[in-house]
Automatic annotation (TrEMBL):
Domain MacB-like periplasmic core span(s) in chain numbering: 17-239, 497-677
Protein name: Putative ABC transport system permease protein
Pfam families: FtsX, MacB_PCD
Protein species of origin: Nocardioides lianchengensis
InterPro entries (UniProt xref): ABC3_permease_C (IPR003838), MacB_PCD (IPR025857), Macrolide_Exporter_MacB (IPR050250)
Family: Belongs to the ABC-4 integral membrane protein family.
């Protein structure tokens, strides 16, 4: 039996090639994602290990929950005291800053669209465990306010060499700097900053720029003497520290920084693995269909094996053995392709700033195990149902020309499909609805969508029959006998037709859902901006960061400007959970047209807050209550003086004054400016642009431009989703090609007879093309209907999240349907060509 199974597999290697390819693509996506995520993890772990000392001394609350540095510092005298600690070889003070943006020679931003733009002083201190950190590989260390050094990657991207004048935009009091580049720093033994930019000053200049000239540091590195562990040195250092400072080992500081960042970007891995799962589900449909056809074609062969003494278990095992070999082959090829995919992902993310070129790819054992486990298990599971059918083939029955499964099996599929759809609806609404609170609602939504898709796929032979009948009648009228034959062939085996269409249905369902989500999100953004946009212009950072308070002063000085209201974003902690806070000018509430739901929104002053109505209800807070929040400078109690109706203009639900935020350790930086101008003063917009002409990181936008800017990320996200779903659609197209190709082989004698009675090659090709179009359009119709349902339900569930408008892009859905016809025509090219080239006499003689 083993020999027979292997010979059978080798005899049909061409037929199984595309099924293998489906597994290859799914496994490659999983393997590539795992390799990329492991590389990402190792890269950041190595980076942070080389950017901390043996012991790090820092203020408690040095970084707020939003990831921003606070204004808390370590006094310089602490560094002098720690130099006397037993076991301390040296103590170095670091001045750290963010939003120090490098502009290239054409005044274009270098980096900044993901990885941070960092600034620091130069100390030359070794990293923890004696590791060598950045060193000056070219030029020298900067000395004085007119000199600067850059990391090698940034200098290369910007096109700067030693001696050039570097243009910098900062979020500090001085918005623009133009020092001379005197040095280039790099990791001598390899490594990179993963796309971040680093601008290096001397210590006095950094203190002047980023600490208002204070004789202090953002943190201290204490280097251990030989033989002294990080833990021992930390304990000795901690004993010498004043209140408000803490000492942590370099290993702990590196792990903390790396884990926080990796947790923040872990959605990338999850995101990619979800689409790998979609590809595998679609691939499973292809495998089920392929094995179903092959089992039917081999009915005589399997019956002969039974007649020769093979048991049902042996026949079942032979089919599963073929699936095992197929799975092993697909997993092996998928692993190789996965490495190439990981290289591609690394290149793609390098284009948006996350440069991992300094880190070699990490090929962990879990990647190999996952690839083979998925490849083998998915293939064998998909082949199980067709394999089980072999045990129901009686030897005498199978010796006939055809084996037709009883209609009762289709009725059972309908029953199973209905149960799955009902269960999926319950799970979907449990995850999206607010009637019953369920943990991890996203998993319920995913399980519900999958159950509904599988349920529709199971029931599709019955529910799609009216469509197939209509297609036959339509084709017969339009294309005569050829169309009638194509329609009858689609109806001949509705299970096969609908199973092939189901693979395309899944891809288009998700594509239509995302099209509705994207269009609704953009429509909601437009409505929100139209209803709530105040002022005439908005000023913001092009890289979604902060900018210098000098910008606000420049805007106030522009002729025709009536009022400028600042917005600043920072974060605190409430009951252990991070919470964003907005700071505005004390008189800004009235200008922002906040509508009071309770209290007086114009009563905002230092030490008080306004709360969004929904947030206040959720936290059971009322006017007169105190809001307790932990900020970098310590615990705060702010009086609630007003509750305002939900307003999307304010990014977070807690609003206080700019001065209140400054007192809690927030940096003196703005995130947005809202500007009101005199309508009688022409050309104000041009003058505003001129005021920030030297600051490419800052933009001025009117209402239409602001709305366009808010829509841009939605378009990019939806485009990314479509690109990833293209993998599932490619597999679905392969499924149609495979099904048609196997169908041609199965109907070889029939094709020969049709040719013998006068059907031309052109008519034969057209018949198979029409069969392919039926499959593609059926999948598209089911996909569009389900996608529209999922999209509307999802947007209805998100109506309380600010997405109030449900918009169905009918034009885009029509394009999907039109593309399905094109897919059908293209998928039929190879099978139709093969059929047309069959020798008539040999085809008639085929058994």
């Amino acid at each position: 039996m083993l020999r027979a199974a292997l010979k059978s597999l080798l005899g049909r290697k061409v037929r199984l090639l595309m099924s293998t390819f489906a597994i290859v693509l799914g496994v490659a996506f999983v393997a590539g994602t795992l390799v990329f995520s492991d590389t990402l993890n190792r890269s950041f772990t190595a980076l942070f290990a080389s950017t901390v000392g043996d012991v790090v001394v820092r203020p408690e609350g040095a970084v707020n929950p939003m990831g921003d540095l606070s204004t808390l510092t370590v006094p310089a005298e602490v560094a002098a005291d720690l130099e006397r600690v037993d076991g301390a070889a040296r103590v170095d003070g670091n001045v750290n800053a963010t939003n120090v943006v490098v502009l290239d020679e054409d005044d274009k931003v270098v980096g900044g669209f993901g990885p941070p733009s960092l600034g620091s002083n130069w100390t030359g201190a070794p990293a923890g465990h004696g590791l060598e950190g950045l060193v000056m590989t070219e030029g020298r260390v900067p000395d004085g306010p007119e000199e600067v050094a850059l990391d090698a990657g940034t200098a290369e991207k910007a096109g700067y060499v030693v001696g050039d004048t570097v243009t910098l935009n900062t979020a500090g009091a001085t918005a623009t700097l133009e020092p001379t580049l005197v040095g280039i720093a790099d990791f001598r033994e390899g490594g990179s900053l993963n796309g971040a930019t680093l601008t290096i000053f001397d210590t006095a200049t950094a203190q002047e720029l980023f600490l208002d000239g204070a004789d202090a540091y953002s943190d201290l590195w204490v280097t251990a003497e030989d033989g002294v562990s990080q833990e021992e040195l930390r304990d000795r250092v901690e004993a010498e520290l004043p209140d408000g400072l803490e000492a942590v080992t370099g290993d702990d500081a590196a792990d903390e920084a790396a884990s926080d960042l990796l947790e923040a970007i872990s959605f990338l891995t999850t995101f990619l693995l979800i689409f790998a799962g979609i590809a595998l589900v679609v691939g499973a449909f292809l495998i089920v269909n392929t094995f179903s056809i092959l089992v039917a074609q081999r009915s005589r062969e399997l019956a002969l094996l039974r007649a020769l003494g093979a048991s049902k278990r042996q026949v079942l095992g032979s089919v599963q053995l073929e699936a095992l070999v197929l799975g092993l082959l697909g997993a092996t090829l998928g692993l190789g392709l996965g490495v190439l995919l990981a290289i591609g992902l690394r290149a793609v993310f390098a284009q948006v700033g996350l440069d991992l070129s300094g880190q070699s790819l990490i090929f962990a054992p879990r990647t190999v195990l996952a690839a083979y486990a998925i490849g083998v298990l998915v293939t064998m599971a998909a082949a199980l149902l067709p394999a089980l059918r072999t045990t129901r083939i009686a030897p005498v029955q199978a010796l006939r020309d055809d084996v037709v499964l009883p209609e009762s099996s289709i009725q059972r599929r309908l029953q199973v499909g209905v149960v799955l759809v009902l269960a999926g609806l319950v799970s979907l609404f449990a995850g999206l609805g607010d009637v019953v609170e369920v943990p991890h609602g996203g998993w319920f939504v995913g399980a519900g969508v999958l159950a509904i898709l599988l349920g529709v796929a199971a029931a599709s032979p019955v529910i799609s029959r009216p469509f197939l009948v209509l297609a036959r009648v339509t084709f017969a009228r339009l294309f005569g006998t050829v169309g009638n034959l194509a329609g009858q062939n689609s109806l001949r085996n509705p299970r096969r037709t609908t199973a092939t269409a189901s693979a395309l249905m899944i891809g288009l369902t998700l594509a239509c859902t995302m099209a509705i989500v994207g269009d609704s999100a953009k429509a909601s953004v437009d409505k929100s901006i139209e209803d709530n946009f105040v002022g005439d212009y908005v000023v913001s950072n092009v890289v979604a960061g902060s900018f210098s308070p000098e910008v606000a002063e420049r805007m106030r000085a522009v002729d025709g400007v009536v009022q400028v209201v600042r917005q600043r974003y920072t974060g605190g902690t409430i009951d252990g959970e991070p919470q964003g806070v907005v700071g505005i000018d004390a008189d800004g509430a009235e200008f922002l047209e906040l509508t009071a739901a309770a209290g007086d929104v114009t009563a905002l002053r230092e030490g008080t807050v306004l709360l969004q109505e929904t947030y206040a209800d959720d936290e059971d807070l009322q006017v007169g209550d105190d809001l307790e929040i932990e900020m970098p400078a310590g615990d705060q109690r702010w009086e609630v003086v007003g509750i305002y109706e939900d307003n999307p203009v304010l990014f977070f639900p807690i609003v206080t004054t700019v001065d209140t935020l400054l007192a809690t350790g927030a940096q003196d930086k703005d995130n947005a400016l809202i500007i009101d101008v005199d309508p009688a003063s022409p050309g104000v917009g041009d003058r505003l642009e001129e005021a920030i002409a030297d600051l490419p990181i800052v933009t001025v936008k009117d209402q239409a431009e602001f709305a366009e800017e808010q829509r841009a990320p939605i378009d990019q996200f939806v485009l990314l989703i479509f690109a990833l779903l293209a993998l599932a659609l490619v597999i679905a197209v392969l499924g149609i090609v495979n099904t048609l190709a196997l169908s041609v082989i199965e109907r070889t004698r029939e094709v020969g007879l049709l040719r013998a009675i006068g059907l031309s090659r052109r008519q034969l090709r057209w018949m198979i093309t029409l069969e392919s179009v039926v499959i593609a359009v059926l999948g598209a119709v089911l996909g569009v209907l389900l996608g529209t349902f999922f999209g509307i339900v999802l947007m209805y569930a998100l109506r309380d999240e600010g997405l109030e408008v449900i918009s169905v892009p009918t034009g885009q859905l029509a394009v999907f349907l039109a593309l399905s016809v094109l897919i059908g025509v293209l998928a039929a090219v190879l099978p139709a060509r093969r059929a047309a080239r069959l020798d008539v006499l040999r085809a008639i003689a085929t058994e």
